Amino acid sequence: MRAVAARQGSKWFSEGWTVFQQQPATWILLGVIDLLATAVLYELPYASDLTAVFTVLWTGGMISAADRCRTTGSAGLADVVRGIRTNFQPLFAAAVFGLLIAIVCDLTGDRASSALRLLAFGGAGNESSLLALIAGALYLTAALIGTMALWLAPALIVLNGATPGDAMRASFTATWRNGSASLVYGLITAGLMLAGVLTLGVAMLVVAPLVYLSTYAASLDMFPPK
């Protein structure tokens, strides 16, 4: 792993955009599949947390397709499926960790909302208020750890052959040590997601695959191939 400058957080998107431009129709199609699958899982009773499992598996597939597109100039759904199938066991192990994080966030989510209201408007300082603050802290901790550990883990599994544990530890360490670049990247991602909402989801057709492609670029930058 190598340390990078803060400006790399924006460069990852420009590098991802370069890959996107090689096969724009294909990447948009893959983005549509991603969004539809996520929406279906989210709406199914008792299945919303499975979106975490799907996201990790799909990220692995998209990383595999991105790598093929960068080296050959072409990619397709078959490359995504092949990437998932070839690396299914380690990707699924990482996905289980993502599922556990999602469950923790679900269990503490309502309390976390209460904690935010308490911090914003003040609370009575009673036992329920304390529990709400504790739940809020657990929610934020789980969400932060999960995001940092899983951001680059699928890429490290697919591209570097890392074990799930090593991949998640390396992802967490890389995000921590490159905090400024990761923050820039996160802010840009949030801005693009907001653009997706403001355009009634139209921009998400590009934003969704671009997030995966920029993650691919970030992985290559922080963990350059030997």
From TrEMBL:
<feature type="transmembrane region" description="Helical">
    <location>
        <begin position="183"/>
        <end position="212"/>
    </location>
</feature>
<feature type="transmembrane region" description="Helical">
    <location>
        <begin position="91"/>
        <end position="109"/>
    </location>
</feature>
<keyword id="KW-1133">Transmembrane helix</keyword>
<dbReference type="InterPro" id="IPR047798">
    <property type="entry name" value="BPSS1780-like"/>
</dbReference>
<protein>
    <recommendedName>
        <fullName>DUF2189 domain-containing protein</fullName>
    </recommendedName>
</protein>
<feature type="transmembrane region" description="Helical">
    <location>
        <begin position="129"/>
        <end position="162"/>
    </location>
</feature>
<keyword id="KW-0472">Membrane</keyword>
<keyword id="KW-0812">Transmembrane</keyword>
